[in-house]
Amino acid sequence: MYKPKMEKISGPTRKPAFSLLEVSLAVSLMGIIAGVVMPRLTSHSKDVRIHACHVYRGNIEIQAELWFRNRGKWPAADLNDIGNAARYFPDGLPSCPVDDSHYSIDTNSGRVNGHKHDK
Asked: How far apart, in Å, do the first and last CA atoms of the chain sit?
């Protein structure tokens, strides 16, 4: 007896993909993680700026001492003379990263005035 071959007729092939539930779960999980991590990152930015200000103060005081040793006098209080000298500040005189103000020094001691930021 003759049996005809029966071919399977298949519908459109399905490509592997994520379901709507899986995608929404992943998005909500990323939202929760971002909600926990972002406040921690932004709270540290003020501390970083305060520490950067302290580093700039120290750098200015060291360069002012070098100026004093080389020239026998302290730089101007507003630091315009040492700020223009590329030997001491090749990238220019920094400004305070906390409040964007300019630094000044005491011409008797060479120490930076102010800029004692609190946390």
From this structure: 94
Contacts of 75 (CB under 8 A, 6+ apart): 64, 67, 68, 81, 82, 105, 107, 110
Q: How far apart are CA 119 and CA 100, in angstroms?
A: 17
pTM: 0.64
Q: Copy the structure tokens of residue 20.
A: 């709507």
Cβ pair 69, 76 in contact under 8 A: no
Quote the Cα angle for 12-13-15, to 5°.
130
Summarize pLDDT for 5-16 with one digit per residue, the tens.
Answer: 666 666 667 778
Average pLDDT of the residues in 62-75: 94
Structure tokens belonging to residue 16:
């592997």
* Distance, CA of 115 to CA of 30 (rounded, Å): 39
Q: Which two tokens stand for residue 110?
A: 């060479």
